Amino acid sequence: MKEHRDDDKVSTSLVSSSSSSSSSSSSSSSDLLSPCPVLHSKFLLDEDDLLLELKMSEDDPLFEKKKYILQKKGLDHMEQVYLKGTASPDWIITTLESLLQRARTIQLNELELYFSDLAVYPPAEFYSPRNELEALNSILSAIKISVSCATDKKITALEDLHAATLNLIRDFGAKYRDDMNMIANHSCDKENQLIHWGVCNGVKTKLHIAYFEGAGRGAVALEDLEVGDVALEIPVSNIISEDLVFESDMHPVLASIDGISSETIMLLWSMKEKFNNNSRFKIYFDTLPETFNTGLSFGLDAITSLEGTSLLDKIVEAKEHLRSQYEELFPALCSRYPAIFPPEMYTWEQFLWACELWYSNGMRVMFPDGSLRTCLIPIAGFLNHSICPHILRYGRVDPTMKSLKFTMSRPCKVGDQCYLGYGNLPTSDLITFYGFIPQGCNTSDVIRLDISDHESSCENSMNSGQQDHMVRGTWNSHNREIFYYGLPPPLLEDLREAQCPQHCTNNLTLGNLENEIEVLENLRSTFDALMDVLGDPALDDRTNCCWDVKLAFDFKDIERGILSSVIASCDDGIYLVKEEYRNCMTEDIRG
Ligand SMILES: C[S@@+](CC[C@H](N)C(=O)[O-])C[C@H]1O[C@@H](n2cnc3c(N)ncnc32)[C@H](O)[C@@H]1O
Q1: What are the boundaries of the region Disordered (predicted)?
Q2: Using a 6 Å cutoff on CB, does residue 381 contact ligand 1?
Q3: CATH 3.40.50.620 fits 37-174, yes or no
Q4: 294 with 431: CB under 8 angstroms?
Q5: 409: CA distance to ligand 1 center in Å?
Q6: What is the pLDDT of residues 111-138, one digit of tens each?
Q7: Does 553 have pLDDT greater than 50?
Q8: How far is CA 93 from CA 164, 165, 352, 495, in A?
Q9: Half-sphere exposure of 121 (CA within 13 A, CB side)
Q10: Spatial distance between the Cα atoms of 142 and 98, rounded to a whole number of angstroms
Q11: pTM of the model as a whole
């Protein structure tokens, strides 16, 4: 797994940080750990009022961009909300709405910032499930801090605000139901043994394990879990981290290899440890699947089916990277140290299995000494991913308890599956490193554009390499007005400038409108070409196809959906601009 936002699971950037695959993983994981743009609260000593200050952290690398957005929306990045001694229901609704507008912006990630549309006011209802949950939970944290300092009189107002925020979280979560069918009567003996082992070793859990169609094991709430409840707590001593390798006979050999990453060391250790009958983690290794079925195991048919998609390059690059990593180490290590690296345990197939294990189950954990390590975490490894997870932040070891806590960011009813957020991962990463497509609309799914290849007038002048451009399903965007059309504002802006360098404003002049039509028509033809490469969906033969070919076809459908929404937005835009052009002509003639 991946994330570990202060919180999530990690998608490991296993083996090395140089591959494109690993870089995407590590970026999401840094999300998790990075200083969360928290809301601070502060108090006024005034008799009747309490001041709740929502302040953006200046450590946030996106601070300046977010500050700019807040200003554009007429919100100050340090705006203060006065809490009255008594709170009317109307006051609570308005106050919460105002807090939420600010918190949503503060919690935007880089991708959401790219697509955010400053021209829409009132601002979009929400940006993504992750953003909404982060925003609401950050308000809860701010209120919690305030309560600890407030006088009795204001505590009531804070409690009302707290309750209203919890209601919003509950209502929001209720809209997202991942429909996974539990497989009744599936034996969970091995999983139960692992839980028993964990509990004997200090694990506390409010989850049990069940099997789900299409997802293997998942964790189910044993009782109603509320926001703030700790669903699972794992003592550090039960975490598989590089400390274990220090104790093993392979450590001196591995430590002497120049430039080897700690992830690679862990991976090589686990390849042997899984065969060790005396391993302290034998029960854990016994629960692991024999095959992982991630994109890294795609066969030739599936790879061929991906022609024209971004997933094809991702999988091929990741696989080539792993192959070259393997060949750098083997058979050399087996020949030189056969007792430490028995050849039968270090085949390419075993290596790939271990890579899939670490990519799909590794979590990045921040230890109290400040070190950030990729770890395997027994029991937590049963948690599946959702785009609207119950557990958002989880990667930081509690220095007092010396444990990792999985705390609820939204409620989960008894008997429901409890989901983790692996990170803001696009479906291409989820297929490559985890082997599944999440339910619902994944707002991280984008199609990146190589603008330098854009023919015609856009060539050379586009964007001067400063910003990577991309599109996503335009159903995610709210502004369909002229000059917006649901398309990404930075992309349109760069295209306009490439088309007409003198362009400076979006005024309704004939020149601007002519330029706009050309921009949209060029864009449309670019996306038509991309769509053609994906081929006719009717030719995707799904009868009796294998798991990997099915995933490949499903991914193609996702990209087709994005492209057709963009093409439709271009068409609507061309229509809109031409109408406006005609209106301007008519006015010019009249004038
Ligand atoms: C950390 S493990 C979670 C436990 C896993 N289901 C198992 O049985 O071991 C991650 C793997 O779970 C599966 N998975 C996680 N979330 C999923 C989802 N929403 N839908 C389908 N499969 C999912 C994928 O196979 C992924 O590689």
Answers
A1: 1-34
A2: yes
A3: no
A4: yes
A5: 20
A6: 999 998 766 555 556 789 999 999 999 9
A7: yes
A8: 8, 10, 53, 41
A9: 9
A10: 14
A11: 0.90
